[in-house]
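Hey, why these numbers?
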Amino acid sequence: MTAKEHPQKEVGEENSRQNRKDRFLILHNDDYHTFDYVIDALVKICEHDEQQAEQCTLLIHYKGKCDVKKGSFSYLRPLKKALIQKELKATID
């Protein structure tokens, strides 16, 4: 059978290809910055709302890191750079 006979298979394959291109911007815990500082950075740089930023900050504190944004490498790179300029530790995985 062809993809036309199974349109959901075609959509699934397209989503699968897209997911392989997606990366995660990871923010890591440190012992220097306050919760408010990190929350403010997530709101301004990653465009999180207050509640989302607070939840990410708690995950970072207790788990050591949190993926704060998902997207292509070229989309995440300037966000990572902005977080690093605020002296936060960020990576793209």
